[in-house]
Amino acid sequence: DAGVIQSPRHEVTEMGQEVTLRCKPISGHDYLFWYRQTMMRGLELLIYFNNNVPIDDSGMPEDRFSAKMPNASFSTLKIQPSEPRDSAVYFCASSPGLAGGRSQSDTQYFGPGTRLTVL
Amino acid sequence: GDSVTQMEGPVTLSEEAFLTINCTYTATGYPSLFWYVQYPGEGLQLLLKATKADDKGSNKGFEATYRKETTSFHLEKGSVQVSDSAVYFCALSDQGAQKLVFGQGTRLTINP
Lengths: 119, 112
What we know:
- The structure holds two protein chains of two kinds.
- By secondary structure, chain A is mostly beta strands.
- Chain A is built from no helices and eleven strands.
- In chain A, strands 2, 4, 5, 6, 9, 10 and 11 form a seven-stranded mixed β-sheet that branches.
- Chain B has strands spanning 3-6, 11-14, 19-21, 23-26, 32-38, 44-50, 56-59, 62-65, 75-77, 86-93, 101-102, 106-111.
- In chain B, the strands form three sheets. In chain B, strands 2, 5, 6, 10, 11 and 12 form a six-stranded mixed β-sheet that branches. A four-stranded antiparallel β-sheet of chain B has the order 3-9-8-7, with no helix packed on it.
- The mean pLDDT of chain B is 93.
């Protein structure tokens, strides 16, 4: 398997622009997670999905952030409008859930991340 | 709520030194415990895990034992290499949950 795929790997944009980050989870995984990593705040869970349905979005910073999962193989995280404080590395991760067997159900597999810089 | 506390870094060691990174947790149920590693410029990778008390997870010479009595999951390696330089994260997932609760991470640097 190719693992979790994220695009783009790097994004530089100007304040006020819309940014869309993309993620393809591992095939057969039932859960998808979006994280943000910064030096100041560490690793933060933004939102996660089960079978394409958002389960917990309590970590989404504000209304400027939105996430969708239109099908089992694709998810997007959108920031509109972007601000300099959104600069961070954004990770997508997936986990098999019970489909992976009890011993693997909660193991998360991370993508390489998207480094976002908002000028 | 659930939480994970790791020893603060950064940690700097010489090659072939013994490594311990402390991790303690607070959880209401019977969590699974994990160590993830993040190499420079990469995403997190699972290093090892343990799912019940007294289990020992091991991988690439690293070990950690699930200690329920002390609510700990310390990471150890007998002889570190320069290639072990990375950030190490301790994490838990509470019983039946899919969310991971991460510690703040410990940056490890190994000098030749």
